[in-house]
Structure formats: structure tokens, C-alpha cells
Amino acid sequence: MTKRKIPIEIDVHFKLFGKEPWEVIYGDRCVICNTRIDEYGFCSCGSDGD
Ligand SMILES: [Zn+2]
Question: pLDDT tens, 5-49?
């Protein structure tokens, strides 16, 4: 496979922060979406105004 399918949570992070999630310094996981909270304190659901 030559094409890399990007999971939605990664795609969201890329749109939000302009870099891949593995380039972001993560902290704890969000208890709601189970995504690790990044250096800005955001997770996948945090920016969606849950
Ligand atoms: Zn979350």
C-alpha cells in the first residue's frame, strides 16, 4: 500500500495544529474522547465545543 489513510483524529489534529500528532507533545488522555491532550491542552473533542 502506497497511500496512507489518515485516521480522523489525526486528520483533525493536522488541521488544527498544522503538524502530525506524533510531532505534538502530549499529556494525559481525555476521558471523553480518549485522545491524548496535546501541548496546547486540546484533544479531539475539546475544539468541537462538546
Ligand atoms: Zn476529548
Answer: 767 666 776 777 676 666 655 567 888 888 888 777 778 885 544
Q: Ligand 1: distance of its center to the CA of 46 in Å?
A: 5
Residue boundaries of the structural domains of the chain: 8-48
What is the sign of the dihedral through the CA atoms of 9, 45, 13 and 26?
Answer: negative
Distance between Cα 11 and ligand 1 center (Å): 15
pTM of the entire structure?
0.35
Q: How far is the CA of 3 from the centre of ligand 1 (A)?
A: 28
